[in-house]
Amino acid sequence: MLRSLHRLLITLRFPTFVRGLGRENCGGTPVHNAKFASFMSVQGCGRRRHPDRHDRRLRRQKFTRTFAFLCAVLGAAWVALESAKAFSLF
Predict the structure, then answer these.
(1) Contact, 16 vs 25, CB < 8 A?
(2) Are 37 and 63 in the same domain?
(3) More confident residue, 80 or 39
(4) For residue 17, is pLDDT > 90?
(5) Do residues 1 and 40 share a domain?
(6) Which domain holds residue 36?
(7) CA torsion angle 45 50 52 54 (round to 10)
(8) What's the rounded Cα separation, in Å, for the pair 85 and 33?
(9) In this structure, are residues 36 and 45 in contact, taking their beta carbons and an 8 Å threshold?
């Protein structure tokens, strides 16, 4: 509660454009210097990357968990089926 009140007072006292934080809050982009970014794109340095690696990692982890779960279920079903066949022979 006190922290939010403190932030509110600071925001009212010092607007973002006065503090120089307007660039950082406007778009959420990791590149703050547009001239540098355009220079790098003209030079062809680097490769294009997905801007949000965290979401991609989370999707990959979810896929891996789902795949492992399906493999475990199929393995258990196969063992149960083979055991049933073995018991039917005796």
Answers:
(1) yes
(2) no
(3) 80
(4) no
(5) yes
(6) 1-48
(7) -110
(8) 69
(9) no
